[in-house]
Design a protein that fits this description.
Radius of gyration: 13 Å
Shape: elongated
Number of helices: 0
Strand content: over 45%
Length: 70
């Protein structure tokens, strides 16, 4: 949960563990920068996927759900 007035944050910091670097963030709106800024987002649920392709071509992904509250 984040308030609309909360500061921007790196989404990889919210995944937990030690996510591999070099991944790509996507959402229903397309590519995402990897930083979420609550200000300007309407209250609600936002779904993001972080995808990393390893050196052998294997792909791994993780989902991050962000809920913006007023």
């Amino acid at each position: 949960l984040v308030c609309e007035s909360s500061p921007a944050f790196l989404m990889t910091d919210s995944l937990g563990g030690t996510p591999d670097l070099g991944g790509v963030w996507t959402s229903a709106w397309g590519s995402e920068p990897g930083t979420f800024t609550p200000l300007g987002h309407a209250p609600g649920l936002y779904l993001f996927t972080y995808t990393v392709t390893g050196p052998t071509g294997c792909t791994r992904s993780a989902q991050l759900d962000v809920v913006v509250i007023p």
